Amino acid sequence: MTDVRLDQLSPCFQGVIPALIATCDRDGEPNVTYLSQVYLVDAKHVALSFQFFNKTKLNIEQNPYATVILLHPLNLESWRMKLRFEHSETSGELFDTMAARIEVIASHTGMAGVFKLLSADVYEVLSLERMDGWLVPPDPVLDAEPPKVPAGPLTELRGLQTISQRVARAKDLDELLSGALTALDELFSFSNSMVLVPDDSRTRLVTIASRGYGSTGIGAEVAVGAGIVGLVAQRRKMIRVAGFGSELRYGRAIRSRVEEVGERGSLSAEIPLPGLCDAQAQLALPMLVGDELVGVLAVESRDPLCFDEWDESFLQIVANQIALGIERMESGDDEVASEPACECVEIPAAPALAPRRFVFYRNDDCVFVDGEYLVRNVPGKILWKLLKQHHAGGPREFTNRELRLDPTLGLPPVKDNLESRLILLRKRLAEKCPDVRLVPVRRGRFALEVASPVELVEKDSA
Fold this sequence. Notes:
There is one protein chain. This protein is of the alpha+beta class and 462 residues long. The chain has three domains: 6-130, Electron Transport, Fmn-binding Protein, Chain A (Pnp Oxidase, Chain A); 156-262 and 269-331, Beta-Lactamase, CATH 3.30.450; 356-459, Arc Repressor Mutant, subunit A. The protein contains ten helices and 20 strands. Strands 2-1-5-6-7-4-3 form a seven-stranded antiparallel beta sheet. Helix 3 (156-169) runs antiparallel to helix 4, helix 3 (156-169) packs parallel to helix 7 (309-331) and helix 8 (377-391) crosses helix 10. The relative contact order is 0.10. Mean pLDDT is 82; it is low at 149-153, 267-273 and 337-350.
């Protein structure tokens, strides 16, 4: 038994390089196969995922000993664990944690209900040893460890303080979200992040803020229960997945096998990932206020070992801060009478722009602009109300309060998430139709600016 502890081999348990398990039956006939997941339970126990390995399961029932080979994804050191089976778990926290990772892969490969965890098999670790001779000796120059960089003046606590201040001092929800995501990028190198909130039906999540994806991504939707973001919303628990690319390839290989045996009908269409198409690590965290889901904070990276336990703890604190900030904004964003109105400035006339054609479909409250989808549901109804009033020569400024009091918009009397819907509408217009803008005037009041002629068409259905 080596002096190395299991928790010192944390990268080996991330699933970047699949582990191998060897078992044998009562007659000594061996069987070797790859493992989908090896989970570190504590200093003396690991849990192995049981999905399709009937031969392995049968062997363990006859002979409870197994050997697992782990590979370190950074230095490719090989570690051998000798195990003894203790028990299987089909429910509880351990099972749910391991099942969540597999469900993420299953949902993205259209194998929900097929590619799933049957049990989490807990083993006692009898010995752990490094396998010598696996690698050539390290080169003293090429393999030398880089010098450690001394800690700078911006400690983790100060960075968290900066994020907390931006959330607390934000004047509106857009500033709150952009400030928090920018700080995560600039201070802690979380370069790709997004915030998603529930839609009107609360069966889907809509992206209202992102960092690292350019102007795309706003308005992207994920069904509750689908992918890592949807599962976090459904379970209201943090999920981290590493080695995502290899897991997707593994899931797709199983999908191909299912199709070969004639069970294509049990599969669904593959769900495209919002964000990076080549993400190797994902971490998503629920944003909760009490028992209510306010949204999901998700980060991802092309580095399969980018996130660890520290990131989980740190980002959960940030997610909690953002959730409280959203709650504050949504519950108190009506116009503040004591704030002075913005001074009106004469703007020179801009060159004439081509007319814009907006079409509103009453059956699903969907708005298209120049034949391209723009927005739907409550944001669609809000936009149509504003455009009609502008077309009729009415006021160009609006308040959140008057939107809340308009029965045609169908806003719920409690927790209407109006500020989130206005952010989505504002950003979708900026992306698809920049000559029609929603401009904040002051807290709870905004103006509609239309720089081009507009044509309004209303239809029952597409």
